[in-house]
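Regression check, uridine-5'-diphosphate-xylopyranose case 462:
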Amino acid sequence: MIIRKIACIGAGYVGGPTMSVIAQKNPNIQVTVVDLNQERIDAWNDSDLINLPIYEPGLDAVVAEARGRNLFFSTDVNKAIDEADMIFISVNTPTKTYGKGKGQAADLKYIELCARQIASISKSDKIVVEKSTLPVRTAEALKNILENTGNGVNFNILSNPEFLAEGTAIADLHNPDRVLIGGEDAESINALVSLYEAWVPKERILRTNLWSSELAKLVANAFLAQRVSSINAISELCEVTGANVDEVSRAIGQDSRIGAKFLKSSVGFGGSCFQKDILNLVYIARSYNLKEVADYWEQVIILNDHQKSRFAEKIIQTMYNTVNGKKIAFLGWAFKKDTNDTRESPAMYVADHLLDEEASIVVYDPKVSAEQIYRDLDSLGTRSIEENRRLLKVFNDPLDMIQDAHAIAVLTEWDEFRGYDWKLIKNKMKRPSFVFDGRGLLDSSLMNSLNFTYYSIGSNVK
Ligand code: UDX
Ligand code: UDX
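Current build output:
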């Protein structure tokens, strides 16, 4: 089976970069990424590449190489489906906000809409690839819809979950630890394998059955999130015992059985995947009456929520139990460095907690816009839109922002924050000058020598 044309539905954080790299590495295959959102497609087509809808280091160069050659972005979903031999589904699968499974199960309405559209448009056989992270056995539903509503053509379904992390998407795509392909039909699997073989070594391309592939994606995210919650649980213990969490991480990470990665204590994990996928896993386990299994994984989320509110409480307690009217400067709003993504970012929850105490918050993030920050805060629904704008202000210049601040809180580990002139910052702030480092980013000996009152998550340095 030879693939000449590919369509991808969903031009988001997953679909956009993944298809860009597939097109870059397979110049003879035409790749069309479609999305219902016209504004997003226009941004992908931005001629000077500075307004691409997502920020990822290296993405602009990949798009520059392939776009217009064999990579296209469009809102014409029907045409792309009609022409394609292979269709990737990469639309979002948010946590349900209504009905059965509300707050836990994945909302599959967009997936179903895609399936129905593919079925009604297709006039030739297609390979349909699940790229979105989905509950186990979604492929079955997909197959039913395609076969029952289609025009008699054949659909082969594959699961090919994406493991890229934001901020390193291009590097992860160029050099993946593994590519996972689940499916039943050998010919379809081989067709998808051949796309990846253009740049990924054969031994890193794993083949499994459909259900293992769907489940493996959820489990990978659950294990990663569990490591963060595990070290964050230890961070609280470190603070009361006098241990230092970075030292503990280093000591355990040297054990090759444990490994050094994903042991950085933080104000909590964010991002669009970890919480959603664990909730989903918990929901699936409950729906099979596996109470202990569900409770076990749910604890990862409970600990993460605790870590965010514990950080906010630490700020309040340290500042003499009141932050009312005090200026607290947030460095960072994104859920991690090198991305403009703010989904589930701990910063918004910490801000919300402090705003409840009438703090006056100012925010600087190198890549997140003021509109996005207000959108995030408003989405929590805690207070009115006017109140959010009165209590929280967004700055484009960190030094301007810090003038007369009572405290600084580091919410994202952007490299530039380390390089600031902290002596100058100290002189601009009110005394005593508090720094709450939610990412263990700054040099504690420098902070102490400059006479900041410095708190770093997981260590009780003065
Ligand atoms: C999403 C999911 O969150 C993740 O679980 C999955 O693995 C991949 O898809 P992401 O790419 O980060 O991840 O989502 P998002 O940036 O929201 O992109 C989805 C895009 O699909 C949006 O641009 C949206 O407009 C588009 N979409 C959604 C459609 O084109 N059609 C639809 O019916 C629904
Ligand atoms: C994650 C998975 O890594 C990726 O494989 C999957 O495809 C999507 O979900 P992402 O959410 O982009 O990727 O970022 P990741 O680097 O995993 O970080 C998630 C969160 O955990 C961030 O908020 C990060 O700050 C936090 N984190 C990560 C820690 O607090 N400590 C760590 O040691 C690592």
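Comparison notes: Residues 38 and 125 are 28 Å apart (CA to CA). The domain at 5-208 is CATH 3.40.50.720 (Rossmann fold). No diff flagged against the previous build.
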